[in-house]
Amino acid sequence: APRSAARTPLKQADPQPGCQPLATPPRAGGGPPAEPWTPTANLKVLISAASPEIRSREQRRGLRPQEQLSGDEDEKAQPSRKEKSLGLLCHKFLARYTACPGAAESSYICLDEVAEELNVERRRMYDIVNVLESLHMVSRLAKNKYIWHGRHNLAKTLQTLKKAGEQNKYTQQIQMIKKREYEHEFDLDGERNEEEARSLVSNEHSEMCFVELPGMEFRAASVNSRKDKSLRVMSQKFVMLFLVSTPQIVSLEVAAKILIGEDQLEDLDKSRFKTKIRRLYDIANVLSSLELIKKVHVTEDRGRKPAFKWTGPEVLPNTQDPKLETTSATCISPISESISSREQCSKNLFPSRVKQDFTRHPSLIKLVKSIESDRRKIQSAPTSPVKISTTGTKQNLPVYTSKMSQLAAVAQHQLEGTPKTAKEMKMALSGYALEHTVPLPEAVPRPHAQAAAPSLKAALPQPLGALPRSHGSASRVILPHAHSGVSYAIYLHPSQAHTVTMYSPSFMLQPLPCANVTGIKSINSKVLSEITNKEGDRHLAADGPGKAPTAKERAVVKSESSSERCLKRPQAIQEINLIKKCRSDEESLDASVTFFPSGYFIPLTQCTHHGSKAGLSNKEKAGMCSLQPTTAYTSPAAGVIPVTASELEAVNIPALHITSLNIMLSPTSIAAPPVLSNSYLNSSNTSSAQNPSSSCLNFTLQHVGLMPAGMQVPANPVLQHVPISSKPGNVNCSSENTNLQEEKVSKNILQLLDHGVPKEPQEPQPTTESFFRTPGGPNTASSLSANSGGNDRVSQGTLYIPQRKLEVSED
DNA sequence: CATTCCCGCCACCGG
DNA sequence: CCGGTGGCGGGAATG
């Protein structure tokens, strides 16, 4: 009995059209005339056309009661629910901004006005804007104002989201859920154990964080408001699901489960679930209006369930522009990030108790604080002398340039307006094309080319970029982004913030569609392949579900090529060493646990191997104490793993970015082909004998989150092999310390840099490659096919999912 | 009855 | 203390 039902039935308070315009709604009489405003208006028309009859019928009904008014003709009609739908509303909204070619003004959005024009309550506007914001199609400027960006950043955003999704292991999570379902159905109730085990393992839902783009990160301090709450975040996650799943179809049910912690028992949360679904519908409606997804029905054994299919642009891992180099990946930039020490967290949306169990590992991070203020200043001075070096990335500039420029710029390009007709093809093209084709806003000074475009695909690491300027309290993590070297920031939930990590892109192995493995048939494999072809060989590796061999081959190729441009591994190593020196030893161990390149949470259990409990406690503490000056500082290099350098190399974790420090090495080298990773995983279970390096890899993977610890590695032993710290206790501390120390650390680091660390490592290094080729290494992937057959739970590496017939019906 | 999802109360929160 | 935000869930409209 939460909120009582005070629900008064007065629903029609009405701004109703029928009545006279009270306040002069702008659109006073305008009922009938379709909105003139947009050229694209047609779309909406069509849409609305959807169910005319119903509406009409409805109308009459409505009129009857109290009428009197009908004096006039207009049939303004009553609304009919459909006409008021969010989707339609969203279309109207989009129409407004979408099509305007040059009008700069159009780029500003004033909620009130729009609400009025569209005649809807303000509340609804928030729904729309929030999801648009999650895609970075708009950003909030100030109180009632937003700026329209259109699809400019869409491609980047999607890439980022995809990456994030991969890091979150969404693919696996989905799998898991499906599996669970399956068990339920069939298996009577067979193994409960399994379930439990699973639950432990999995769930890492992580975070609640909001992924941001560099250019628009600002939210002025003041302006920035509520911590990101769900809708925004939920929307991003939802999108991530599409991007990572192979048939790009996501059912509401699954999405809801994932978005919820999913960890908890199900029963009780019926209501929670329901609410989640409701929200998803809201989001879905908006996304549909954007033509990013479309509703379909998935028919599985158990009946058909509502689902959505991604119709947006394919996300390509990256792009091209071989121009890069310039900025060579490496950059050292002083970043400062502030973590808000205090937590501002009040409540979390996702109440998962489990949360605590997870340790955060953010992708890159940074936590420093301080400089932030500078940044602000900088803003004022465009040409500020600050040399943020950021060499590579040019994005910095833009950043401070600030919104103004952006705005202006943005205003200009809006294209998009893809009219419905051409749809898909167009869509795909447009998305992509637009992105690339369209120059950034002129206003923004874009220093040279974008960062190099790694020819590799997504899998590759990207050059790290500059760091983002920080902002206020929210702690952000930056993700280096692929092309363009743009960095993205992720806002972490405050509580999690303290943990720092290094991000190494290399880790992002993509889980890759394991369709084969799972046994799920991808309906559209054809489609995929087509796409792939289309795109050119370039990106395919990542996505193609193709057969292992092929994929592999490609992967290999890629890596090679990539190697050229890659980073200088040696340097990286050196740096690392340096760091190590600096840092005190004790931490080292933990560090390994705590920080690892992937972002997001990893269950401590995994990390520690067993001693999760302790970890928990620490974690909590960490949160609380946020910053106390610690005496110890050591290095924050925390990210460094205790593993020896050589080992690291072996593992291919070469590039460590020490974000906190601001020293970033470009990861480059890595390019671990997704396929490989996959296979590797599989193989792991299978073969017990692994060479050290492999174990290392395993370890790494687990930590990273690629592999759920429990699942993949059959025996814990693996962990043991790893040279990691043997001390159990340390783990805990690390996070805490890290946090505390960051500031110091960063300083130290900087100092170091000044002194002797090579700043611009440019030479390419041959490193990574070798790793891959190493015999015994991951390459050996035999396994893909091997496992698929058995469905037993045993093979943990892969979840076996019964093949179900999946039919997608269009609607 | 089931699926969709509109509506708007009301808790927050920054100013 | 106010007004913008936006979680949230009842329950109406639709299917």
Automatic annotation (TrEMBL):
<feature type="domain" description="E2F/DP family winged-helix DNA-binding">
    <location>
        <begin position="226"/>
        <end position="312"/>
    </location>
</feature>
<keyword id="KW-0678">Repressor</keyword>
<keyword id="KW-0131">Cell cycle</keyword>
<dbReference type="GO" id="GO:0090575">
    <property type="term" value="C:RNA polymerase II transcription regulator complex"/>
</dbReference>
<dbReference type="InterPro" id="IPR015633">
    <property type="entry name" value="E2F"/>
</dbReference>
<dbReference type="GO" id="GO:0000981">
    <property type="term" value="F:DNA-binding transcription factor activity, RNA polymerase II-specific"/>
</dbReference>
<feature type="compositionally biased region" description="Polar residues">
    <location>
        <begin position="777"/>
        <end position="798"/>
    </location>
</feature>
<protein>
    <recommendedName>
        <fullName>Transcription factor E2F8</fullName>
    </recommendedName>
</protein>
<dbReference type="InterPro" id="IPR036388">
    <property type="entry name" value="WH-like_DNA-bd_sf"/>
</dbReference>
<dbReference type="GO" id="GO:0000978">
    <property type="term" value="F:RNA polymerase II cis-regulatory region sequence-specific DNA binding"/>
</dbReference>
<keyword id="KW-0804">Transcription</keyword>
<comment type="similarity">
    <text>Belongs to the E2F/DP family.</text>
</comment>
<keyword id="KW-0010">Activator</keyword>
<dbReference type="InterPro" id="IPR036390">
    <property type="entry name" value="WH_DNA-bd_sf"/>
</dbReference>
<feature type="region of interest" description="Disordered">
    <location>
        <begin position="1"/>
        <end position="82"/>
    </location>
</feature>
<feature type="region of interest" description="Disordered">
    <location>
        <begin position="536"/>
        <end position="564"/>
    </location>
</feature>
<dbReference type="GO" id="GO:0010604">
    <property type="term" value="P:positive regulation of macromolecule metabolic process"/>
</dbReference>
<keyword id="KW-0805">Transcription regulation</keyword>
<feature type="region of interest" description="Disordered">
    <location>
        <begin position="757"/>
        <end position="811"/>
    </location>
</feature>
<feature type="compositionally biased region" description="Basic and acidic residues">
    <location>
        <begin position="550"/>
        <end position="564"/>
    </location>
</feature>
<dbReference type="InterPro" id="IPR003316">
    <property type="entry name" value="E2F_WHTH_DNA-bd_dom"/>
</dbReference>
<dbReference type="GO" id="GO:0045935">
    <property type="term" value="P:positive regulation of nucleobase-containing compound metabolic process"/>
</dbReference>
<keyword id="KW-0238">DNA-binding</keyword>
<dbReference type="GO" id="GO:0002040">
    <property type="term" value="P:sprouting angiogenesis"/>
</dbReference>
<dbReference type="Pfam" id="PF02319">
    <property type="entry name" value="WHD_E2F_TDP"/>
</dbReference>
<feature type="domain" description="E2F/DP family winged-helix DNA-binding">
    <location>
        <begin position="81"/>
        <end position="150"/>
    </location>
</feature>
<keyword id="KW-0539">Nucleus</keyword>
<dbReference type="GO" id="GO:0045892">
    <property type="term" value="P:negative regulation of DNA-templated transcription"/>
</dbReference>
